[in-house]
Amino acid sequence: MIRTADKDVARALCQSFNRHFSEGKDVKACLLLMMNVNKNHVPELRSIDPEKVLALFNAQMKVFMPSELRNMTINIIRYVMTTHVNTNIGAADAFQLGIMIDSQIIPLNKWA
User: How many of the other CB atoms lie within 10 Å of CB of 58?
Assistant: First the structure.
């Protein structure tokens, strides 16, 4: 089940990513900063190693289409949420969480 706290963390991760992305940083840097910045605010993220998380998605980091990068970003945030923040989120809730993240992350038309 997705708790209100989970939604708050997902929103915070998205806002952090969006802020760095809007500043012109590349996607990988935005994801690293997103995880590192939120370590101070989210106890479940304190032990996370952002480099190791991104290593799991390394093959996807070599995509070229903005839509693929955006989808990968959503998948990484969902992975962080379901693996580190709340491991009790089931498949159906993870799907719903992905929809919520999709609504929070910068729209595709700004990824060009």
Answer: 9
Contact 17, 34 (CB under 8 A): yes
Closest CA to 2 of 74, 72, 91, 77: 91
Write the CB contacts of 63 (distance below 8 Å, at least 6 apart in sequence).
69, 72
Give CA–CA dist 110/27, Å, rounded: 13
Helix (H, G, I), strand (E, B) or coil at 28: helix
Residues 42 and 63: their CA atoms lie apart, in Å, by: 30
Confidence bin at 60 (pLDDT 50/70/90): low
3-state SS assignment for residue 75: helix
Is residue 85 within 8 Å of residue 48, measured between CB atoms? no
Sign of CA pseudo-dihedral 30, 32, 37, 43: positive
Predicted structure pTM score: 0.93
Predicted local distance difference test score (pLDDT) of residue 59: 67
